[in-house]
């Protein structure tokens, strides 16, 4: 069964704030840590990201309809400063699948695969770094499925996180592509 077509478009902090507010405050997005955010809080957060030189966000589309959020950042300047020793070509990543009343089997894995494919489309990207909450077992399984290898737990100001890495070679191997 086909998942459909996944594409990305730039996020517009003002135009997309209402959409994002519904996503990040949904109970399924508890690990996004914005459950109590007001619309203005979401606008402010994504305006901050849009203005940041080292942090970016896109809206993911499923057959042309908004369905997920992708963020990527330079861990030398955002999120992980002082928590590990970045290597050249490291790119940090977050993704969030929109809540739905009609879940599609395999959709979230297709989304993380599309996100990773997009990140590795840049030849400068050598390794993707993630730092999900240690208790987010579902995302740990998804990360492992696309090639992430946990390194260690770290303490961030907002959570205890599982620092994990995925090289281009690990991602291709997880997809069954000869390296």
Short recap of the structure:
The protein is of the alpha+beta class. It has five helices and seven strands, in the order βααβββαβαββα.
Describe the structure.
The chain is α+β, with helices and mostly antiparallel strands. 31% of the residues lie in helices and 27% in strands. The protein is built from five helices and seven strands; from the N terminus they run E-H-H-E-E-E-H-E-H-E-E-H. It has helices at residues 13-24, 39-51, 107-120, 137-145, 168-174, and strands at 6-10, 55-62, 65-73, 90-97, 127-130, 149-155, 160-167. A hairpin with a 4-residue loop joins strand 6 and strand 7. The two termini are 27 Å apart. 27% of the residues are buried.
Helix and strand topology:
Layout: E1 6-10, H1 13-24, H2 39-51, E2 55-62, E3 65-73, E4 90-97, H3 107-120, E5 127-130, H4 137-145, E6 149-155, E7 160-167, H5 168-174
Parallel strand pairs: 4-5
Antiparallel strand pairs: 1-2, 2-3, 3-4, 5-7, 6-7
Strand content: 25-35%
Rg is: 16 Å
Quick one: how many beta strands?
7
Q: Would you list the SSEs in sequence order as H and E?
A: EHHEEEHEHEEH
User: From the helix content, strand content and strand pairing, which structural class follows?
Assistant: alpha+beta
- Poorly predicted runs are none
Number of helices, where a helix is a run of at least 4 consecutive DSSP H or I residues: 5
- Main-sheet strand order equals 1-2-3-4-5-7-6
**What oligomerization state is this entry in?**
single chain
The largest pleated sheet is described as: 7 strands, mixed
Tell me the helix content: 25-40%
Give the distance, in angstroms, between the N- and C-terminal Cα atoms. 27 Å
Shape: globular
Mean pLDDT: 94
């Amino acid at each position: 069964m086909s998942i459909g077509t996944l594409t990305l478009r730039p996020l517009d902090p003002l135009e997309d704030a209402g959409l994002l507010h519904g996503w990040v405050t949904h109970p399924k997005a508890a690990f996004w840590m914005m459950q109590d955010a007001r619309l203005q809080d979401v606008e402010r957060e994504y305006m901050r990201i849009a203005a940041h030189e080292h942090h970016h966000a896109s809206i993911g589309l499923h057959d042309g309809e908004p369905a997920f959020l992708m963020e990527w950042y330079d861990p030398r300047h955002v999120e992980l400063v002082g928590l590990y020793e970045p290597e050249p070509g490291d790119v940090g990543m977050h993704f969030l699948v929109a809540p739905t009343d009609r879940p599609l089997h395999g959709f979230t894995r297709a989304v993380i695969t599309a996100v990773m494919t997009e990140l590795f489309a840049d030849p400068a990207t050598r390794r993707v770094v993630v730092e999900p909450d240690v208790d987010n077992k579902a995302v740990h399984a998804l990360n492992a499925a696309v090639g992430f290898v946990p390194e260690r737990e770290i303490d961030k100001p907002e959570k205890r996180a599982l620092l994990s890495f995925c090289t281009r070679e690990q991602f291709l191997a997880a997809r069954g592509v000869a390296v």
